[in-house]
Design a protein that fits this description.
single chain; alpha+beta; two-stranded antiparallel ribbon; 2 helices; 2 strands
Amino acid sequence: ALDLPSTEDFDALVLAAMKADNTCGLAKCRASVVTLGQLCPHCNRRYCLSHCLPEIHGCGER
């Protein structure tokens, strides 16, 4: 559900990927994880402090 630029605009596509990498790994959350993000040891994705526990973002369900 991300609004990605067209593949013809490579620079905009790279910037969109970099911006997406700086947000919480939970799809519904747009919180920044640049300064206070936590890396999940199970799925290796970065989450904000509200969603960093595996039980909260769904790692325990897999």
